[in-house]
Amino acid sequence: METKPVSDIDDSLRSLVESMIETMYEAPGVGLAANQIGVPRRVAVFDAHDELGPRVMVNPEIVETEGEVEFEEGCLSVPGHYWEIARPAFARVRALDLEGNQVEYAGDGLLGRVLQHEIDHLNGLLLLDAMPKRLRKKALKELRDEGLGLA
Ligand code: ZN
User: Fold this and answer.
1) Whole-prediction pTM value?
2) Which of 3, 21, 76, 82 has the fewest CB atoms within 10 Å distance of its CB?
């Protein structure tokens, strides 16, 4: 499911974000994109396990990446599965917050990873799309064996 940019930052968006944060913590997970819960809007929440707590990105775009690192990555859409996936080590993202102000999130480690993972979701890409062919084959088999399908 692809997403459409958010045009109005209003109460309905704010209550969507509130329930997304709840869903993320209940899962539990470190990030959630709106289209994972069936809402095709360009908004995601994340908590990179730092002192800043839950954060929101509205209409996010990656503006810079650097390096490459393998990182054990999972997804709330395929619970319980983790794969070593190579991505840029560092990412810088420009987005809007819930007041409509432009904000930037940048970092490596878990933060860099979750930013890229959630923006992939908003672009209609799954974790499987970020895998090299051989790993994707293995992952698909794992998911099939569990009857999870393509998630
Ligand atoms: Zn995910």
Assistant:
1) 0.94
2) 82
